[in-house]
Amino acid sequence: MSLVLHGIGVSRGIAIGKAHIIMRGSIEVLESAIPSILIEDEVARFLKAIETARLQLSSIRDRIPVGTRPDIAAFIDTHILMLDDATIVNTPVETIREQGYNAEWALKLQRDAVVGVFEQMNDPYLRTRRDDVDHVINRIQRILQSTSQGDLRSEDSLQGAIVLTDDMTPAETVLLEHQGASAFATEFGGPLSHSAILARSVQLPAIVGAHGLRRYIHDGEEIILDGMQGILIADPGQDIIDHYRELKAQEAQRRAELARLAHTPAVTLDNHAIRLMANIELPEDIDALNRENTSGIGLYRTEFLFMNRVSLPDEEEQYLSYTRVIDTLNGKPLTIRTLDMGADKEIDGSGSRCSNPALGLRAVRLCLKDLSLFCPQLRAILRASAHGPVRLMIPMLSNTRELHQVLTLIRDAENALQREGLAFDPNIQIGGMIEVPAAAISAMDFARRLDFLSIGTNDLIQYTLAIDRVDDAVNYLYDPLHPSVLRLIKIVIDAGKETGIPVAMCGEMAGDARYTRLLLGMGLTEFSMHHSAMQEVKRVINDSSISELIPRVDTLLQSTEPEQLPTEIEALNHPPA
What we know:
By secondary structure, the protein is of the alpha/beta class. The chain has four domains: about 5-25 and about 150-235, Glucose Oxidase, domain 1; about 35-145, PtsI, HPr-binding domain (Enzyme I, Chain A, domain 2), CATH 1.10.274; about 300-435, TIM Barrel, CATH 3.20.20; about 435-575, TIM Barrel. Helix content is about 45%, strand content about 10%. It has helices at about 40-60, 70-80, 85-100, 105-120, 125, 130-145, 170-180, 195-200, 215, 240-260, 285-290, 315-330, 365-370, 370-385, 400-420, 435-440, 445, 455-465, 485-500, 515-520, 535-540, 545-555, 565-570; strands at about 5, 10, 15-20, 160-165, 185, 205-210, 220-225, 230-235, 275-280, 295-300, 335, 390-395, 430-435, 450-455, 505, 525-530. The strands form two sheets. Strands 1-8-7-3-4-5-6-2 form an eight-stranded mixed sheet. Strand 5, helix 8 and strand 6 (about 205-210) form a beta-alpha-beta unit. Helix 12 (about 315-330) packs parallel to helix 14 (about 370-385). About 45% of the residues are buried.
């Protein structure tokens, strides 16, 4: 009898092949004291491990074929750059010298401090950046402990294999593709990890969060991985294999069709133009966007400028960073989200900790409390607006009092820039992110005072349902189709219509093609997502008629049987002939 294991599908596609299991023991780090006479030898041992890790990653990067999309190499570059970061290199060295700890323990202490900062962040995308810290530090720890257990080697052949492991680093994901693996599944990890994003980018079917997979599946056993449904099938019968082979052929045809959509507009069958914009984290991400024919950037995260450093970025550094992005967009709009971090922003972990960071001093709350963070950023964004179309977006608004304070600060900054003779766009658009249920319910109040709204579904869903979507214990409750979530989204979209301002969606839901027709029928006309999802969403848009969807979605939203919603939305995605 077949066994079906469930996880989170993070990169669609179907693979049929032999399981290749990578067993990694947990890295046990013990504290020991180093005699003073051997302190510098211990420092040298640590620095040698850093250099070895750099050589390993550089070797993997060098194996990326010429002509490969630059964003793929950028994932490896990120980890290489982390090996030059003072927080990973200098602080452990200081700990070894000042406290006499062994290198492994000094590195562990710093890892705990750095990860503690990321865990204080509520933005799910930023919080999963802790995985990158763990990936880099675990690589160093394995070198220090002279163990390569479970390491993927560049010379290994995995042709056609489905790799099963506890977690996957971006470097390993690149190796998997290079070595011919057909898919991978992990016991841990989330949909926003760099490995998940990279899997989507290279179109490698993948599942994360499939707990117990190495316990129930044997090495060399034939299995099926369905990255769309997020399932692994062990011991499949011939009828199941034949069914999935047919689905795999259909998937190959679908991908060929998507490739032809790159330079076509997103227009519905009844001639409604839909704006497809991109979410980006780093300036380097823009290289990938120029191939996707986007309408601009709907969410530019600015947190990277503030992370992994001792001193805050000043106005000039931020201004130059924003203008570099504007210069590459060729006149397309750039939506800059103001800083969305928690109060414990110090990378050394020395700040005060909030007992519940999701509900604490973060985002606009932190910025209004600490104007030394906020005012330089507002000035930098305003100055950048003189170089091209820029929109300023405020995260985590919960009441109009906060909005009034922000608007006053923006006016003060504009007046100051005018006195100083510095250029800015006096008509810069100001928008707000709707990601708190209170803000969604009061969307009309915000819409009357702003130029645009953007629905952040990641936070809106987790706040509405009182769950942490990156917590393995409760993330099964994360449900974009919960009736309360859909009602809140509809309230925001309707507020935009009534006041005549655009409403976008920039959460994960916007980039999930399963919800595209639903959102079109609810009246959404602006979607912002990771670039890898754009062509699939565009395909659905181009095959949809809004005039036909509106009455069907209205009926669906009035359903008194919420448990039927997934089935009804599945029917919505298969229009009647």
